[in-house]
Amino acid sequence: MKSSLNEILSFNESFVKFKQYEPYITSKFPDKKSVILTCMDTRLVELLPKAMNMRNGDVKIVKSAGAQVSHPFGAIMRSLLVAVYELKADEVYVIGHHDCGMSAIDPELMIHHMIERGVNEDIINTVKFSGIDLVKWLRGFGDVSTSVLKSVDLIRNHPLMPNGTPVHGLIMDPNTGKLDLLSDGNEYLTKNNLIDTTKIEQ
Q: Domains, the chain, ranges and CATH?
């Protein structure tokens, strides 16, 4: 297997030497006071910020396979809470995308691939016997809209998320960058009398 490590380190040495980092200097606090949970898909790396008119320093971006919050007290939810409480993010965006790899994940096949790559079947059986349902844990989702709304709902109703935090749900076209709104967090808060409507910027 060819590694890209040496190529990256060589480029990085030149990047630092010629101060190519200067256009990206910013603080750790998001200028637009938002945090985005999105997918790790390669097509979104540059497309998503460009399509949202975001530049370096504007937002916090948290990534997971499928833009999913798989556990209410897992690392993804912790990252969102850190962004809100410690890094001054006032809004949360959950952005999935069409043609997501997580919608096609076959857990049984993935376990087979693990074995092919050298993971001992005894280890897999030990994990299963310890109470972890590997198939359920690895399973993706069938419908991206349902998945995004499920994550939105979990974040909105999380006991540690501050009241009045808008949590929006969107889906992106990974080819054009077009965003489709599934759930407007401001409308949700207004409808449920959870926010002072005079504070919502138009």
A: 26-105+141-199 (3.40.1050.10), 106-139 (no CATH)
Mean pLDDT over 174-197 rounds to 91
Q: What are residue 96's phi and psi, to 5 degrees?
A: -90, -175
**Which position has the higher pLDDT, 38 or 131?**
38
Does residue 99 have a known ligand-binding role? Answer: no
**Contact predicate 24/56, CB 8 Å:** yes
Is 133 annotated as belonging to a binding site? no
Q: Which of 89, 74, 48, 98 is nearest to 154 (CA)?
A: 74
Residue 202 pLDDT grade (very low, low, confident, very high; cuts 50, 70, 90)? very low
Decide the pairing of beta strands 167-172 and 179-183.
antiparallel
pTM of the model: 0.91
39 carries a ligand binding annotation: yes
- Is 173 annotated in a binding site? The answer is no
